[in-house]
Amino acid sequence: MAKGVKIVFIGGVGEIGKNMYALEWENEIIVLDAGMGFADDSMPGIDKVVQDITYLTQNKNKVKAYIITHGHLDHIGGLPYALAQAPAPVYGSRMSLALIESQLREHPAIKVKAIVVKARSVVQIGTFMVEFVHVNHNIPGSFALSITTPMGVIFFTGDFKVDHTPVDGQVIDLTRIGEIGRKGVALLMGESTNVERKGFTLSERQVNESLDKLFIENKDRRLFVASFASNIHRIQTLFDLAVKHNRKIAFAGRSMIGNTDTAIKIGEMTAKPEGIIDISHIGNYKDSELLIVVTGSQGEPRSALVRMSTGEFNKIQIGSNDTIVFSSGPIPGNEGAINNVINNLIKCGAEVVYESLFEVHASGHACEEEFKLIMTLVKPHFFVPVHGEYKHLKKHAALAERMGINKRNIIIPDLGDVFELQVNSLKKVGCIPSGAVLVDGSGGGSADSSVLRDRQSMAEEGVCVIGIGFDGKTGAITSGPDVITRGLLYSNELVEHMQETRTVVLESIQNHGINLAKDDVGDIRDKIRRDVQGYFNKVVKRKPMVITMLQPTVK
Questions:
Q1: What single string gives the DSSP state of each residue in 416-443?
Q2: Domain 5-199+363-446, what fold?
């Protein structure tokens, strides 16, 4: 049977984030990106979400390289966890590798060989020849990838847009993309994030002009701008405007400070040190002399702007002479949190400006006309949409068909799918383990872990802790039952239900004929739990987590 190049969808399809794709030929695997996802309300206490990399772990001797398109967390945030299980050299731009190095400081045991590449660099990794093609995004050092394989060229767009007036002056390399397309491309793998949007993406220069007007209109007010900490081009724009309008710039938020320091150190951002002040020194300046750049544009619970909006940021109090600009678009699902922050800021007396009122944000992702342009230049035989929820992938597939790609040559992948590319065919040949691994502090657990279920139960139903002291020989109760509840009862219900709960526990011990000194501890706890949950379900319509603590005493 003829063999082909396998394409493995480890993350990044049917979802936003966790981008990771693998190409495999015989005993060689290269991995394209290794991003993370973000926890939602159903994942209390979870820090981040990464891919299930069982397949890479099982084939770690085959993994030859990680190829990074750019330095956003949804493309590099899972790399420390992948490197720990399947180590290999990492290729990326100077900006991407600097941000990866910063991440790896939290994982000192991981040692990595990092190889800096530039636009139009070509590297040979075993059978695969990888060319890095410059594209516009909102972070420096962003690439598309042209990968020559035994079955033809695979062109992977990465995250991109077509910006004819980018902040750094480096226009997307459409010339090279066209040359690659004329030579022949077997497969195009295209990001799909903004495929539902018509037209072209707003240029970063247009945002510059809008922000400039806001500086002029608010010349006597204190200015705040909330943006993504990874939007290096936007932060550069703000540096330039601060200089133009004679304002000092201060940063609030750990990621904002860290990313900015990194970009300045490696020369991807220009800023005069005397123009930057520490957030603790803003009291030494007039409102008209300040620009404060903050995290929290997505309403993240402990971000700088959210804490300012609730009066919990001890260095800044928001007031009537403040103008706060949301220079970002909402990530799907964050709209409610963002609106809460806006409302709280307005209650504090501030003026708030956001995308629907003013052109203060330009996406880093292409819109429909830009996707058409790339398809026209690349002219692929096969097409696979990636980087998006299923609705985005479906829309992108329909667009590809309208652009003349044969419907039979367009495939929408699911998470865990394995495709095989041959000279004249692209077909699904299997599946791998896939899904999410939840990272909690320094540990990890699967998406259906008992830890997460317990947290969800406590968050939704509350917790009831029962303490019982008993004679270790006879089983007679010597103290308690003591009852403590959290997140279960209102203050006016406590006295009545606490006493009733004690009665339920005593009746449970009596009715089940429990001997606290002799019966199995797990069995005792299960019987008490069922009876206590039954009581609360009857009186308050909740089934709390019940924790029974048994303390024997021996005289």
A1: TEEEEEETTEEEEEEE----EEEEETTE
A2: Metallo-beta-lactamase; Chain A (3.60.15)
Domain boundaries, given as residue ranges, for the chain: 5-199+363-446, 204-353, 462-553
**Residue 528: CB atoms within 10 Å:** 22
Residues 6+ apart with CB under 8 A from 393: 13, 14, 192, 385, 386, 412, 413
DSSP annotation string for 238-253: HHHHHHHTT-EEEEES
d(CA 191, CA 183): 22
pTM, two decimals, is: 0.82
Rounded CA gap, 115 and 457, in Å? 46
Between CA 129 and CA 125 the distance in angstroms is: 6
CA distance 396 to 371: 9
| CATH of 462-553 among 3.40.50.1380, 1.10.418.70, 2.160.20.10, 3.10.20.580 | 3.10.20.580
Judge whether residue 4 has pLDDT over 70.
Answer: yes
Inter-residue contact 466 to 525 (CB < 8 Å): no
Element (H, E) at 182: helix 174-183
- Element (H or E) spanning 134, and its range? strand 128-134
Tokens 């203050």 appear where? 491
* Rg (alpha carbons) of the chain, rounded to whole number: 28
**DSSP string for 48-71:** EEEE--HHHHHTTTTEEEEE-S--
To which residue do tokens 């006879």 refer? 474
Q: What is the pLDDT of residues 157-185, one digit of tens each?
A: 999 999 999 988 899 999 999 999 999 99
Residue count (the chain): 555
pLDDT digits (tens, 9 = 90+) for 461-509: 889 999 999 998 888 999 989 999 888 887 777 777 888 999 999 999 9
Indicate the SS3 state at residue 128: strand
| Residues facing residue 8 across a β-bridge | 22, 418
Amino acid of residue 290: L
Q: Which of 338, 355, 358 is CA-nearest to residue 214?
A: 358
Contact between 396 and 385 (Cβ < 8 Å): yes
CB contact at 8 A, 70 and 93: yes
The SS3 call for residue 162 is: coil
Map residue 111 onto helix, strand or coil: coil
What is the CATH number assigned to the segment(s) 204-353? 3.40.50.10710
The tokens describing 281, both together, are 């020194």
Q: Are 226 and 327 in contact (CB under 8 A)?
A: yes
